[in-house]
Amino acid sequence: MDKLYNLRMRAAQGGSHEQGGTHISGGERITCFSNIQQVAMYLLEKGLTHCKGRPDFMQIQLESIPESVTYVQPLERWANVERFVKEGDTFLKEGKTVAFQLLEIIGIPKKVIDRAVEIVSQYSSMRGAVLIDAHSGKRLDDRGEKGVRVSRLDWLGNDFEKWARYYHVSANSRIREALALAAKVNNHPATIAELCWSDDPDYTTGYVASRKMGYQRIENIKTYGDERGCRIFFVDGQKDIRSYINYLENQPVLITWEG
């Protein structure tokens, strides 16, 4: 295989993230040298046309990948949990209730789920994931509002498009990125479950993922217009957390699917 490169983009409004700018958009791809320009243009357009506004700061970073790559299968089960409920409080409560029920089925105690959501709600904007001990509810990372950002991941070649055609799913970038991230995160033995919904105000779908249950997509998990996102990793606190964070941030992972 050709030498691989990792491209990462982040965009903000009101200055860089380090200067207190508001996060607008981010993205990441792994590609070979001949596709770098095409992927960079995709990330540039994504950052400039985001629903959260026009950025005045953008950074696109390119780095080669010298480490060995881990190849991971996407989570096996695809299930779209649809809830046909009314708008308003019941509408919001129902979507989150479905997510929390799925987490309990996986084995996360209700008190731990409630504590995790309470921790996330203390921050106006979370840029990464919060790591929560699945048994005690204690936060395991010390990153504050920044959280732990999962990096160096993508699908191999056109495997996502093949997967999407097979399952008759729209081959859009949101699903592509969510499935890739869930596959990498849940491939690690320390991960017990993941809960996520986007900070994009116009995207109200979230998901619960685990090795036990797979990738469970949940519509209407938040109200339209809400810019608060959530990404929680429920973790086995007895594992080496430093090694786990290093895997999430640095280990190159490509998602492969042969059909």
UniProtKB/TrEMBL annotation:
One of its GO terms (molecular function) is ATP binding. Keywords: ATP-binding, Biotin biosynthesis, Ligase, Magnesium, Nucleotide-binding. InterPro entries: BioW. Its cofactor is Mg(2+). The keyword Ligase applies. Transmembrane segments: none annotated. Pathway: Metabolic intermediate metabolism; pimeloyl-CoA biosynthesis; pimeloyl-CoA from pimelate: step 1/1. It comes from the Bacteria. It is an enzyme of class 6 (ligase). It catalyses: heptanedioate + ATP + CoA = 6-carboxyhexanoyl-CoA + AMP + diphosphate. Homodimer. Belongs to the BioW family. Catalyzes the transformation of pimelate into pimeloyl-CoA with concomitant hydrolysis of ATP to AMP. HAMAP family: BioW (MF_00668). This is 6-carboxyhexanoate--CoA ligase. It comes from Virgibacillus chiguensis. The lineage of its organism: Bacteria, Bacillati, Bacillota, Bacilli, Bacillales. The gene is bioW.
